[in-house]
Amino acid sequence: MGSTIFGFPGATPSVSAYGTNDAIVWAIQTDTAGISGPAILHAYNATNVALELYNSHSAGEDPGPAVKFAVPTVANGKVYVCGQYTLAVYGLGTFLATPTIAPGSETFTNSVTVTLADATAGTAIYYTLDNSVPTTNSIRYTGPFAITNSLSVNVRAFEAGAVDSLVAAATFLSSADIGTGTGLTGEYFSSQLATFTNPPTLVRTDATVNFDWSLGPPDPSITSNQFTVRWTGAVQPQFNETYTFYTTTADGVRLWVNGQLLVDKWIDQPVTEWSGSIPLTTGQKYSLTMEYYEDADTPFAQLAWSSPSTAQTVIPQTQLYPTFAPSFNPRTNIYAEGQLQMQLLGLAGKDYVLQATTNLASWTSIATNFSPPDPGVTLPTSWFNFTDSSATNFQFRFYRAFQLQ
User: Fold this and answer.
1) Which tens digit of pLDDT belongs to each residue from 229-288?
2) Cβ atoms 253, 270 nearer than 8 A
3) The whole model's pTM is what?
4) What SS3 state is found at 176?
5) Which residues contact 275 (CB under 8 A, 6 or more apart)?
6) What is the pLDDT of residues 292-319, one digit of tens each?
């Protein structure tokens, strides 16, 4: 009895039943496939299809974009519905409540005690401390536990025969991992298009890189268009995780972190976000250089980060420092034919001088490494090579390097 009508291409129904009882007709409505609309799963009483038992659209459930001629497949008490690049599975089940974490995300001093619970009785709760999704092979919760380091807790409830709960998460940040930074050193070069010819017009400490200069230039001494900025210093992560750094600028941008070029988009462009990732260690300070040029667009520059425990946000002032102490890379020191070759990790775009001494009192400058003023011609680097051609003349020789500006 009854009927229902779908638009082109119609539907190919399937029938399920419990023996000879409770028959259901399943049909997928796909008449919106041509406009990438959603598929709609319908269920009807098989003895009277005028009686609709279920409609995925009415239920607020979306099995995915419709695919013409899709057929609902019934197996093992479930109905499978294919969409464009998706597969939705419908069936009866007990859905476990999402566990609770107490306290929620917070900053703590010394330690914090965490308690987990689930509203569904009889569940087993498992958790992880490494940002992975909990499974029954993870740590089983048996009682409150203490956290002493910055990390995220991910929690999930399990019960045989039930649908696993959603994952609950909370981030705990040790106050010891909140830095004391004051921001990055910003060097501003007026009337320069994509170059950094010294001296800079303006040098200041910027608490963060989060600027919209649509209402005026960075400073009265800087032109409204065709200027460059170089931010240098150090960044200090709060978690032992892989961080993603995001630059959002109008026109050209480059970003180096710990000697790695993460973003290289030295081109005219509208406001655009680019990103790159790098593993970092809590509390350690890493070199950071961000170069930006503004041509004729609306000046805009922003530097943000994210990690598994950190939502994407502008890097806070506390985690940015205006200077970075250069360091030698001992693995690249090579002594050959009376010459000592050394490599220094510093800040891209900066100049460094190498000095030597035999008595730790009187230092002599023996080499200077200048950064190229036009990064469009020669790409700057965070690694600087020095050679001491007189190393063979001394029994002992000590070296130091420092930034010129």
Assistant:
1) 999 999 999 999 999 999 999 999 999 999 999 999 999 999 999 999 999 999 999 999
2) no
3) 0.76
4) helix
5) 244, 245, 246, 247, 262, 263
6) 999 988 899 999 999 999 999 999 999 9
The highest-level CATH class for domain 184-321 is alpha beta
Cα–Cα distances (Å) from 102 to 64, 105, 150, 178, in that order, read 36, 8, 16, 22
Query: Is the link from the previous residue into 316 a cis peptide, with omega within 30 of 0?
Result: no
Buried b (16+ CB within 10 A) or exposed e, 218-232: beeebeeebbbbbbb
Place of tokens 């630059």: 247
Q: Please calculate the CA angle 150-263-246 and round it to the nearest 5 degrees.
A: 45
- Name beta bridge partners: 115: 102
Q: Where are the domains of the chain?
A: 14-92, 100-177, 184-321, 327-403
The dihedral region occupied by 34, where left means phi > 0, alpha psi between -120 and 50, and beta the remainder, is alpha
Between the alpha carbon of residue 394 and those of residues 53, 389, 397, the distances in Å are: 92, 11, 6
- For residue 304, give the 3-state DSSP assignment: strand
The HSE-up count of residue 138 (CA atoms within 13 Å, CB side) is 20
Three-class HEC string of 92-156 = CCEECCCCEEECCCEEECCCEEEEEECCCCCCEEEEECCCCCCCCCCEECCCCEEECCCEEEEEE
Residue 227 backbone phi and psi in degrees, to 5? -140, 160
Q: What is the CA radius of gyration of the chain?
A: 31
Q: Which two tokens stand for residue 126?
A: 């498992």
